[in-house]
Write a structure and sequence with these properties.
This protein has one helix spanning 2-21; strands spanning 27-38, 45-50, 54-59, 64-78, 82-83, 86-94, 96-100, 106-110, 114-117, 123-125, 132-141, 148-149. The protein has 2 domains: 1-22 and 151-170, no CATH class; 26-149, Sandwich (Jelly Rolls), CATH 2.60.120.10. It is globular and about 70 Å long. β2 (45-50) and β3 (54-59) form a beta hairpin. It is mainly β and 170 residues long. The chain has 1 helix and 12 strands, in the order αββββββββββββ. The longest helix has 20 residues, at 2-21.
């Protein structure tokens, strides 16, 4: 019987360990449309303030690309673990997304809320019952891809069903 448990543990390890080390593909993406794309004609150096209570600064060095995306993720869908070589500004137009950062810290964003993404690995899941529609604005280094895949971090294994068997072999 002990041999059977050891074999079961090894089988679980063989199935789960590759999940940790390879990129996780997106799934449940219903629509992914680039609405527009452009390159600013000069470097960005914008500083805007309204009194003492609000301010925004946006600067870049070198050429950038801008992209506008309409992304729809079905219930149960996910973006997969990835990061961006730039800054994204995202508004949830419809539905809800659970956003996980590289430490698997979860934030929930609902219709009308906005958030940013950047160079840290992350994953977004639609755990709701309706499709989540995200309107996304990217600023990336000119010529860079908008998205780069990442392996699933070890903390994310606990977010998925896993084998509940100790792999310690005496």
């Amino acid at each position: 019987m002990r041999l059977a448990w050891r074999l079961f543990g090894l089988l679980c390890a063989a199935v789960l360990l590759p999940v940790v080390s390879v990129a996780t593909e997106p799934s449940g993406v219903v629509s992914n449309v680039i609405l527009g794309q452009g390159t600013p004609v000069k470097e960005i150096d914008e500083h805007v303030s309204r009194g003492d209570m609000w301010m925004v600064k946006l600067q870049n060095k070198g050429q950038s690309d801008f992209f506008y995306q309409d992304l729809v993720v079905a219930p149960g869908g996910r973006t997969g673990w990835h990061h961006h070589p730039g800054l994204l500004m995202i508004t949830v137009k419809e539905g809800t997304v659970d956003f996980y950062d590289a430490r698997c810290t979860k934030q929930i964003f609902t219709t009308g809320q906005a958030f940013t993404e950047g160079s840290e690995p992350h994953n977004a899941l639609n755990t709701g019952v309706v499709s989540a529609r995200l309107l996304v604005f990217y600023i990336t280094k000119k010529g860079e891809p908008r998205r780069l895949e990442n392996p699933q971090p070890s903390c994310a294994v606990s977010l998925r069903p896993s084998c509940a068997v100790s792999l310690s072999i005496p």
